[in-house]
UniProtKB/TrEMBL annotation:
PANTHER family: DNA EXCISION REPAIR PROTEIN ERCC-8 (PTHR46202). WD repeats lie at residues 99-141, 186-221, 308-349, 395-427. Keywords: DNA damage, DNA repair, Repeat, WD repeat. GO terms for biological process: proteasome-mediated ubiquitin-dependent protein catabolic process; protein polyubiquitination; transcription-coupled nucleotide-excision repair. It comes from Rhamnella rubrinervis. This is Uncharacterized protein. Residues 260-293 are annotated as: Disordered. GO terms for cellular component: Cul4A-RING E3 ubiquitin ligase complex; nucleotide-excision repair complex.
Length: 449
């Protein structure tokens, strides 16, 4: 720590690199917190966790006893052990007895991405509720055709306020908060949809994973999906950065110009037909005049015929990296895969032995630079290196299976929830303030006592 501070003072380290090193040092020392504790009111398994995206302060949880609760992870409500352990009781909670509350398990709970004035819950009672945080009242309700497995909202959206809902029905539904109605449905899956995730690079792109083992990419502005991932389509290696690829392409073009300038000559005009008209290419989606009778479909309609699968079982979890270039997927086949979004190929990263739940969705989390991915592996949490697949950290603290996790970028803390009804906090083993105080005491002389 002191070495990094000295290098920063002398200008050897740039500010961004210094901040990244400090954050990485804190992540490497994550362990079960001995100074913070969350006291949950839930009487069922914790299925969903999310910290608000604006302040990074309020933790929202959803549980199988049909309750949802909000905690302030920065300001404790009480202290224990002589002020050593900070207790974080819930600010408020809603349950079955609450007016408009869910009747069955809450499978997914998310914050409204713009502010903390609203939060949304999806339940096995076939309903999605939009709650006013200040009044704890349901301000909007959407009736779904089946159990709600997962809901998501885009953190980038400026043109829409859509809730993507994955249910046991084969269709993905988009619920519009602005109008209180369904915007439209996305058809293509052949079984229920357990995972939905918005792209981190485009507000219009949605990724869904179904019980049919398929992962589909949708542009919500048009019908049909435009990409279906196939586990047999693979590529090795990590894609180079955009600037590096641009420079490589530029060099290759200049070399080709020097070696074969004929490639830059004027293109030949199309051949003439007997009637004097130029050769006309058939547009996409129309049957060509000659040749095979197979109809060329619009890319948006390929989802009805494409039966490629990304996993041999149900897709139970999805997570897009921060730059939007890669997608992590987890399946009931106990496989974790990394996909290149641009090519749609499986990168063949071999993640070390994982054992995942098969009966319910799981929630994945990544660090801010997407270097580590946190995966619930039965009763433990594991942190894998995204690019090598090796296990970096293992967190053992829950007595039963872990269902969800959330990594707080602001404090470099990890929150996990499981079937044991507990929400555990994993913090750096020693805070920066403690190290500073220790360094100060070590520099003291005998007269400072």
């Amino acid at each position: 720590m002191w070495r990094e501070i000295g290098d920063r003072e002398t200008g050897k380290i740039r500010p961004n690199l210094f901040a990244n090193r400090i954050k990485w040092n804190r992540i490497e020392r994550l362990q079960l917190s001995d100074h913070k504790e969350i006291v949950t009111p839930h009487r069922g398994s914790i299925n969903s966790l999310q910290v608000d995206l604006t302040e990074g302060r309020y933790l929202l949880s959803g549980a199988s006893d049909a309750s949802a609760a909000v905690f302030d992870v920065q300001r404790p409500t009480d202290y224990e052990g002589g002020g050593v352990i900070a207790k974080h009781n819930c600010i408020f909670s809603v349950d079955k007895q609450h007016e408009g509350g869910h009747r069955y398990a809450i499978s997914s709970a998310i914050w409204y991405p713009v502010d903390t004035g609203l939060f949304i819950t999806g339940s096995y009672d076939h309903h999605i509720n939009v709650w006013d945080t200040n009044t704890t009242q349901v301000v909007m309700n959407f009736k779904m055709p089946g159990k709600v497995y997962k809901i998501a909202m885009s953190s980038l959206a400026t043109s829409h306020m859509l809730i993507a809902a994955g249910t046991e029905d084969v269709q993905v539904r988009l619920c519009d908060i602005a109008s209180g109605a369904f915007a439209h449905t996305l058809s293509g899956h052949r079984d229920g949809v357990m995972a939905v995730e918005w792209s981190t690079s485009s507000e219009w792109v949605l990724v869904t994973g179904g019980c049919d083992g398929a992962i589909r990419f949708w542009d919500i502005r048009r019908a049909g999906c435009f990409l279906v991932l196939d586990q047999s389509q693979s590529q090795l290696g990590r894609r180079p950065p955009i600037l590096e690829r641009f420079a490589t392409n530029k060099v290759s073009i200049s070399k080709s110009f020097l070696t074969s300038p004929s490639s830059f000559t004027k293109a030949r005009p199309p051949k003439k037909l007997a009637n004097g008209n130029g050769l006309k290419q058939s547009p996409i989606g129309k049957i060509p005049a000659k040749g095979p009778t197979r109809q060329r479909l619009h890319p948006g309609m390929l989802s009805s015929q494409d039966r490629a699968t990304a996993h041999y079982g149900a897709v139970t979890g999805l997570k897009v990296t921060e730059d939007g270039m890669y997608l992590l997927s987890a399946g009931s086949d106990s496989r974790l895969r990394l996909w290149d979004v641009e090519s749609g190929c499986n990168t063949l990263v071999n993640y070390e032995t994982v054992r995942l739940q098969t009966s319910k969705p799981i929630q994945l989390a990544t660090t801010q630079n997407s270097a580590l991915v946190f995966v619930p592996c039965m009763t433990t949490m594991k942190a894998f290196d995204v690019w090598s697949g090796k296990t970096s950290l293992t967190f053992s603290g829950h007595y039963e299976s872990v269902n969800c996790c959330w990594f707080n970028f602001h404090d470099q803390e990890l929150y996990t929830g499981g079937n044991d009804r507990q929400i555990l906090i994993w913090s750096p083993s020693r805070l920066v303030s403690d190290e500073v105080e220790e360094g100060f005491t070590q520099d003291q002389d005998h007269w400072s006592d």
